[in-house]
Amino acid sequence: MRRVAAVALLALLLPAQAAAHATLRGTTPRFGVELRHGPRELWLDLDQTVTVPSVRVLGRSGRNFAWRAEVRGTNVVARVAPLRRGVYTVRWHALSADAHTVGGVFTFGVRVPAPPPTEAYGAEGPTRAEHVVRWLYFVSLALLLGTLAFRLVCLRRVALPPAVEQRLTLLSAVGVVGTIEVGILAFCLRAEGALQLPLGDFLYADLSPIATGTRLGTAFVAMTLGYAVVAALLLVAWLVDRTALLVPAFAVALGFASGLSLSGHSAADAGASWKSQLADWVHLSAASVWVGGLVAMLVAVWPLAPGLRRLAFARFSRLAMMLIGLLVVAGIYLSVLRLPRVAALWEEPYGRVLLVKLALVSVALAWGAFHHFVIAPALPRGGDRFVVRVGRSLAGEALVATAVLLAAAVLVDSKPPPQGPPSPSTQAHAYAR
Predict the structure, then answer these.
(1) CA 367, CA 322: separation in Å to the nearest integer?
(2) How far apart are CA 276 and CA 269, in angstroms?
(3) Mean pLDDT lowest for which of 15-24, 108-117, 232-241, 298-307?
(4) In CATH, what number is assigned to the domain containing residue 76?
(5) What is the bridge-based pairing of β-strands 24-28 and 66-72?
């Protein structure tokens, strides 16, 4: 967790500290290009002169094909040995005039497609820190989507006490801020693993190949801008006290959640199609609204508005059944699509993580079914002590649902088992979010 905190601090300091260092303007060959023949020289075009340059052109085995780099004006040039067919990783760094070390990584292919920089030679795969950050991202997204859906659907046309309104506003604000900030942290951690630079040098690294040349980067930029719009809508809704503005805020938030589906397994792996992307988005959205709505009811209504407990519970119970149906159908479709055989459930790491998630989901679904079919009919005639016990049961369901999000965070960072003998093109383009 210290590594996560350090990356977060550096990300916050980046705009104030990075103004004077050398910036990469272009490369020859370009990022992610497929060449017919290997280059004789590799050029880095910078906006100022640098010193002590280092350039490595690494093959799949880690062999370096670049000779000693030299500075020519504002360019860094390295001679390259003859290259065979295959993919190559370029790792470079130099000392800029402000004494900061700048560096970066990009890939190219010789008669084969280039992989994304996140799959460059030496790139670090998903770590435990990334799993935790991914989980925090899912929790933030669930708070945002679930709170808004709960307010708009389960509490529609209800005069809310000011304390409940304030609590719901706070939950949605925490959700949108967390979605933006944790998203930035997740991107920095993935980029730091690909660049393989010390944290101090990572602060001045060139991230453009990752930000513009990968599905992850494109989705990160779009979702950050999209959730900034959501934050603005929520702020205006709070300032002018207009609940109607929560509708476009929810619509935009739900729409940009598709960025995760458009940049992950369902978009890049073998068998991916618009159907798998749609199913992934439905699965994620239904789970987020369910978990976040449950937390919103438990945190805002149950302790602050005893008179609304029965109404909120009954409405959320009906909403949850629809969400659970969508979640289950989409989840089954994705599981069948990603697992080539049933035995992969216990033979492959991805399958074992999926089994853990399925077990947790089963517990959460059983708990939810108990609330819907047993507690909901008994709640109107139950006394105050019974209602208090229902709140404790809701807290238990919320904890299990949060654990489901943690299993999902590990699952999306895991690589599904191959569907068959992989082709070079599939190997080069496959990218797990």
Answers:
(1) 15
(2) 10
(3) 15-24
(4) 2.60.40.1220
(5) unpaired
